[in-house]
Design brief:
By secondary structure, the protein is α/β, with parallel strands linked by helices. The chain folds into two domains: 9-224, Spore Coat Polysaccharide Biosynthesis Protein SpsA, Chain A (Alpha-Beta Complex), CATH 3.90.550; 243-330. Helices cover 46% and strands 17% of the residues. It has helices spanning 22-30, 50-54, 71-82, 101-111, 145-151, 164-169, 191-202, 221-224, 228-240, 247-271, 275-288, 291-295, 297-309, 314-330; strands at residues 9-15, 37-44, 62-67, 87-90, 96-97, 115-119, 122-125, 131-136, 161-163, 172-173, 180-181, 206-209, 215-218. It has a seven-stranded mixed beta sheet, sandwiched between helices. A hairpin with a 6-residue loop joins strand 10 and strand 11 (180-181). The N and C termini lie far apart (39 Å).
Amino acid sequence: MNKQSLPIVTVVIPMYNVEDHIQQCIESVLAQTFQNFEVICVNDGSTDSTLDKLRQFTDPRIKLIQQVNRGLSGARNSGILAARGLYVALLDADDFWASEKLAYHVNHLNSHPNVGVSYCPSLFVNEQGGLMGIGQFPKLKKITCKDIFCRNPVGNGSAPVIRHRLLREMTFECPKTGHLCVFDEELSQSEDIELWLRIALHERWRFEGIDVPLTYYRINNSGLSANVTKQYANWCLAVKKNIVGHEEFFQRYLALARAYQLRYLARRAIRSGNSWSALKLIHKALITDPRIIVEEPIRTFATFGFALISILPLSCHRMLENIVINYVKYCGHSIR
């Protein structure tokens, strides 16, 4: 890439104490078949050897921004504001990509000028990067505001490639900090849901997916043990920030979206070993809006079954869990 030319894609990688995974992450970007990109790594106050690992790479397309810790949203915002590319690809530092990732998304966005957010299915990997045999396989076409609110088809923060123009349109000044923001820095979680919903409610740009899994999303124990109460509070705040001006939409879909979120948090609680919390969450989901049974009976009953199974002794729990996972995989359903 000529030094004077602008890259087609800016890859934004927020980093905070990711010494175990940053090398695989960067290598997956440098191995892309589409090579017209820049990489902006935002070091968000790391205290481990993340920077030492990053400095092993000498590719001039890699640029580093250092800042005091502002959280995931703050790191992403710094990278987005420094981006020069026509498209912005988000990649969390503990995830990685298939080598054709950028080529597919650039072609998709070039071919569909009304698509603002291009995304793809994701495959789950363990701490060592090994495939777990499950993943996120969301709805890809004819995405509505209801889909974004209730099911978040984008899935995770390493799946989307977004038009830079769209992100500029979504930029606002945080009243508390004065920072220019795309992702809301008041949210420590659900910041992606808030942004996708804000974009969808503007009804200018479409969300559309590619039917090839191109993102490897790492499941790690520290992430799974996150406080579900805090997650739920952040989700509620993300929703609240978008209600004004869209009251009719939220009146129609808020209960259903809340039920899906509670079901999702029940699955998180199961994974973190909090069995009774999982049972309470899935029960609350069912009474909040029973439509989740009608719309997604297999996933809903599977979650309820997992919650019940998790109360059993660990040996029985693992055996039955594997049976249910294999059944869900056989039926072709996403684990979410």
